[in-house]
Design brief:
7% strand; 453 residues; globular; single chain; alpha+beta; 3 domains
């Protein structure tokens, strides 16, 4: 307890948090602009007739053409975060708007969207605008050159959890012993200059698999240790640039590169802020007042309690899959929100059959009448999607006058290069089930074994 108390009363320079705030805001703004310019707002959130919801968030839906306004709000708030103007309001607004966008359609789920949501939530409780910000420039009494050390260590810890858990997830027989799914993905990059021919070699697939696992597990520790920090940062750059070249994962590699800067000493961040100050023609030394931010005991207790609870959830939540029987990669129960990054290549086929329970009359559904190609692809191998879609079909056909409806699905799924196998029990009426956190008993057993965590 004495060590904890001593740590909570230790302080460090604010500059690293200010640099992180600036780059985070700018990266988020660039992401929103990129999303808009690529036409993905229309394609993903306006054009579809139906949207898959997260359990408990069925009320979160796009606003039609007003969805553009939501993205505008998110973009403006990200700029306000970057410049540190009305920071607390701006970061709360960014967290709410970005998370709402993420929740509008489960089809678009990505680990790095979840990362941005939890990171922006954490930043609500950090004093990121008390140095080198418009808020600080307008109110000198709000300028603090030093802040509690945990304010910066909290971001380091979150980054370490993301990397370390991603590395642990790669310790499985498919990834390490079969080089799957990289053995499927990498050969498709044959047209890349210099790398294309190399990526056809099987030994390269194993090198990428094993090195990816070691990178994720070790990189937080290499960044934390001063003698290896610079080399580790170069490794971060190489790894994420290569990832960006090989896989279409948007801004995430660049976000992780700039985020890694927070592991460097305050002197490095003061130099970065000095360069920014020259570019925008302001005097950086106006913020160098040697003042220390002391929280009142009650406020500090509230903030540290929230952050402690936040990290307890982050540490435990990825392990919830242990509560479910069956193979995780097959059932995907507890798969999301657990930093399991790019571990599966899954493809499915789902043909839905509508049956009149009294007459026995039946007909098949053309999924393209209701779903976009991307939605149909994702639906075909994810059990919660299948159940939600079945209930949507029930409501649709009841409105068309059909009665005594039962819905069955002929469903086959291929996982990481294995042959396609039956997935959902074809004799089960899907309308007897609803989405929940309970184990999905209608999933057929996995006819293989994947060893690992």
């Amino acid at each position: 307890m004495n060590k904890i108390g001593k740590y909570l009363n230790s302080y460090t320079e604010t500059a690293p948090l200010a640099v992180f705030r600036i780059f985070f805001g700018l990266m988020m703004f660039a992401s929103i602009v990129r999303f808009w310019l690529n036409g993905w707002i229309e394609k993903l959130y306006i054009a579809p007739k139906f949207f898959f919801s997260y359990y408990g968030f069925e009320w979160v839906k796009p606003f039609g053409d007003f969805t553009y306004l939501l993205f505008i709000i998110c973009g403006i708030s990200s700029i306000l975060v970057a410049v540190g103007y009305k920071y607390r309001f701006a970061i709360i607004l960014f967290f709410l708007s970005f998370t709402y966008i993420e929740l509008m359609d489960k089809t678009t789920y990505l680990n790095h969207y979840y990362f941005i949501s939890v990171l922006s939530f954490l930043m609500i409780f950090l004093p990121a605008a008390c140095y080198f910000s418009i808020d600080a420039a307008r109110s000198p009494q709000k300028v603090f050159q030093k802040i509690p050390r945990w304010s910066i260590d909290a971001i380091k810890l979150l980054l370490a959890i993301v990397y370390f858990y991603a590395g642990l997830a790669k310790i499985n027989s498919d990834w390490l012993l079969r080089a799957m799914p990289l053995k499927i993905w990498l050969p498709s990059k044959y047209d890349l200059p210099f790398l294309g021919d190399l990526l056809q070699q099987e030994w390269v697939h194993y090198v990428f698999s094993w090195s990816g696992m070691f990178y994720d597990i070790l990189i937080p520790f290499l960044l934390l240790w001063k003698p290896t920090r610079f080399g580790a940062f170069l490794l971060v750059i190489v790894f994420h640039v290569l990832t960006r070249v090989l896989f279409p994962i948007g801004m995430f590699p660049y976000i992780m590169i700039v985020s890694a800067l927070i592991f460097f000493s305050p002197e490095v961040h003061h130099k970065i802020l000095g360069m920014i100050a020259k570019i925008i023609n302001i005097k950086k030394d106006r913020f160098d007042n040697s003042r220390i931010l002391f929280y009142k005991p009650i406020k500090r207790k509230v903030i540290t309690s929230v952050i402690t609870g936040f990290f307890i959830i982050q540490l435990l939540f990825p392990w919830r899959y242990l509560l479910y029987p069956g193979e995780l990669f097959w059932t995907e129960e507890g798969f999301r929100f657990s930093w399991r990054v790019m571990l599966m290549e899954k493809a499915g086929y789902a043909q839905f059959k509508i049956v009149d329970a009294k007459t026995g009359n039946r007909f098949y559904v053309d999924n393209s009448d209701f779903l976009t190609p991307f939605q149909e692809k994702q639906m075909a191998f994810q059990p919660d999607f299948i159940i939600e879609y079945a209930h949507f079909l029930e409501n649709h056909f009841r409105k068309d006058g059909h009665k005594n409806i039962e819905i069955y699905v002929e469903n086959y799924v291929a996982l990481n290069g294995r042959k396609s196998a039956p997935y959902i029990d074809p004799d089960v009426n899907l309308l007897n089930f609803a989405n929940s956190f309970e184990h999905k008993t209608y999933i057929l057993p996995f006819q293989d074994e994947i060893k690992g965590l």
